């Protein structure tokens, strides 16, 4: 069976997902291991059950037993890496993730995607941000359907490396936007980088694209006002605040919420706090 199918079966096993069956499954697996003490797959299976039952130490022992029996067991390397990372051992997790990746074929995109993501997490745990970003880029490369979180993780790694890598962080977010559309999470992260780079107009342009979508318009207009005020563009900022108030007023009574009321108070407070003719 193709490795990805095996890995998927392990991840989605009803015994793993149904907590009430874990102890029953553990007992059954113990019995099978007693009959087949050299079956590496059984130790991996029991290790996964232990993980789901919050017995990480015992899970790690089982994954290591599996690798002692079968040193090239890919799933054992992967799950051991995950368990070690959960135990705050990113160095060990890096070792296992690299062993897992090395054991995969070039066309095993599902496995490579998981492996490089685990490697990225392991490297971030060691504050090796730039290396982690490169691992996350390979994660995206091998993802058949990349999710927003993959782009966000990669951008965050580049961003935490140093200021010189902010353009790379922005580029990976724009790549995600081009692939997945102008998702709020990706645009918000990009706006933060624009502002960090003092690219106010670029950030405002992104906000305007979100406003144009017609979802959360009130909040985005308030955010636009804040950015412009901080940039010293008081007249434009107050205009955005007023547009936010108008958008809030246009919301039907049925749609009004406590959070919308709080937003209105924040906008009114922001306007009152600016001694400028444009804010009155």
How is this structure best summarized?
The protein has 280 residues and is an all-alpha fold. The chain has a domain of 131 residues: Tetratricopeptide repeat domain (Serine Threonine Protein Phosphatase 5, Tetratricopeptide repeat). The chain has 16 helices and no strands.
Question: What are the SSEs and their pairings?
Answer:
Elements: H1 3-11, H2 14-17, H3 22-35, H4 40-52, H5 56-69, H6 74-86, H7 90-102, H8 109-124, H9 129-142, H10 148-161, H11 166-180, H12 184-196, H13 200-212, H14 217-230, H15 234-249, H16 258-272
Helix pairs in contact: 3-4, 4-5, 4-6, 5-6, 6-7, 6-8, 7-8, 8-9, 9-10, 10-11, 10-12, 11-12, 12-13, 13-14, 14-15, 15-16
What can you see in these coordinates?
With 280 residues, this protein is mostly helical. It has a domain at 1-102 and 111-139: Tetratricopeptide repeat domain (Serine Threonine Protein Phosphatase 5, Tetratricopeptide repeat, Alpha Horseshoe), CATH 1.25.40. The chain has 16 helices and no strands. It is elongated, with a radius of gyration of 25 Å.
Structure keywords:
Serine Threonine Protein Phosphatase 5, Tetratricopeptide repeat, 16 helices, elongated, mainly alpha, 0% strand
